Amino acid sequence: MITNVVFKKLTTEREPNKIFEIDINKIIPNPCQPRKIIREEELIGLSQSIRKYGLIQPVAVRRIDRDRFELISGERRLRACRMIGLEKIPATVIDVLRTDSAVLAIIENIQRKDLDFLEEGEAYASLLNEHGLTQEELAERVGKTQSNIANKVRLLRLSPHIRAMIREYNLSERHARALLRLPDDKERFKALKVIVDRNLNVIKTEEYIDRLMEPIQREKEKPKNRLKVLKDVRIFANTIKQAVDIMQKSGVDAETVKTENDDFIEYSIKISKKLKDIV
Q: Is this structure's pTM higher than 0.85?
C-alpha cells in the first residue's frame, strides 16, 4: 500500500519554493535533462522504496502555463512514481527561466553524483551551445573552474560510438583523455579495442598511448622541419638580393647569378672592379 503524504494543494497563485501535490501527467520532461542513461534496475528499486515509504524528496519543477510544468530535477523519481501508477506527485515549484532550469538540473545531478563524466560534458555543451553561456559564466553558475568545463566538453570530440564503448566497459575519464590524444577516431577505436581486450588500467593505457604517439609525432615533425629549412633558404636568398640591390644603388656594378639543380642551389655574386660613374 502506498503511504499517503499530505501536501498543500496547488493554487493559481505563484508560491515559489513551496511544495505542492501536482497531477503527474501535467509534468513534462526537461529537454535539457543532463542524465541520458537511467537503468531499469535503478527505477525498480526506487519505485519499490516509494511504494513502501512514499516519495520523501519532492521533485522540482517550473511552471510553463496554468496546467503544465517542466521538470527541473527528479527524473528518476518521476519515472519511478509513474511506474507504480501514482496520479499525483509532491513537487517544489521554482520560478526560474529555462536557462536557469537547465543549470539547476545539472547542479542537482552533479551534487548527487548522478552524472558520469561524459553526461556532464554533454550537459555543459548543451548549455554553451543552446543558451549562449560562455565557459566562464557556466563555471561560475555550477561552481566549477573554467578548465574543468573545457576538459569535460573536449571529451565530446570522441565519436558517439567510442563514448558508448567507454560507458559500456566502465572506463574512466583518464582513459577517455588518453584516447583523445590520438589523431582521429579510427586510431582511437583501434586503441580502445586493445585497452578493453587487455583490461589496461589508466597508467598502462597512458603508456600504451605514448607508444602509439611516438611515430605519429615524428611524422608530424618532418614537414615542420622541412618548412623551416625552406623558410630559412628564402631568408638567405632575400638577404643576398638585398645586399646586391644596396651595392647597385651605391654605384657598384654588381649582379647575382642563381644556379639550381637536384642537389643544391648556388648563388654567385659578380662585382665589377670599376665603379660606375656617379652623377
A: no
Active site residues: 75
CATH numbers and ranges of domains, the chain: 1-97 (3.90.1530.10)
Q: Residue 168: how many CB atoms within 10 A of its CB?
A: 9
Answer for the pair 20, 9: CB distance below 8 angstroms, yes or no. Answer: yes
- Residue 72 CA to its chain's centroid (Å): 22
In angstroms, how far is the first alpha carbon of the chain from the final one?
A: 116
Cα distances (angstroms) measured from residue 215 to each of 127, 177, 183, 187, 195: 38, 19, 12, 13, 19
Q: Mean pLDDT, consecutive 10-residue segments, the chain of 279 residues?
A: 34 56 90 71 86 87 87 88 92 80 74 78 83 84 87 94 93 95 93 95 95 84 59 74 81 78 73 59
Structural contact between residues 75 and 119, judged by C-beta atoms closer than 8 angstroms = no
Between β-strands 252-260 and 265-275, what pairing exists: parallel, antiparallel or unpaired? antiparallel
Could you give the CA distance from residue 128 to residue 118 in angstroms, rounded to a whole number?
15
* Distance between CA atoms of residues 131 and 213, nearest Å: 37
